[in-house]
Protein: Tetratricopeptide repeat protein
Amino acid sequence: MDLLEEYRRANFFFESGDPLGASRLLEPIIEAEPHNSAVRQLLARAYFNSAQLNAAETHLRALVDHDPSDHYAHHVLGRTLERAGRFREALPHLRLAAAMKQQPDYQEAVRRVETWLGKSAAE
Structure:
C-alpha cells in the first residue's frame, strides 16, 4: 500500500464531505504509522465530523500528550468534549487553545461553553 497516496485520497474524501470514507482510508495508515501526527489529526477530524466522538477524543488526547503545545489539537479536543456534552472537561482545553493562538473561532468556543456552564449552574 502506498501510504502517501492513501493519505491524499483520504484528504480528498474529507475535503469532499465524506469523513466516514476518509476515516476508513486513514485507519490502516495510522496502524502502519502510529506516530504520524498529520494522519492522526486528519483521522480525529474525520471522526469528529462523522460524530464518532469517542474515537476522535482518543486520537486528540494522543496528539495533546505527544505535543502539549498543539493549540489546534486542544481546540478540537475541547470541541469534541463540548459536542459530547462534557462542558466542564472541554473548557480547559478550549481556554488553553485560545491562550496559545488568537483565533476568533477559539474565542467563540470558550464563550459558548462558559455561557452554557453559567446557565447550567444557575438552573
Notes: The first helix runs from residue 3 to 15. The chain is about 80% helix and 0% strand. Residues 1-52 form one domain. The mean pLDDT is 95.
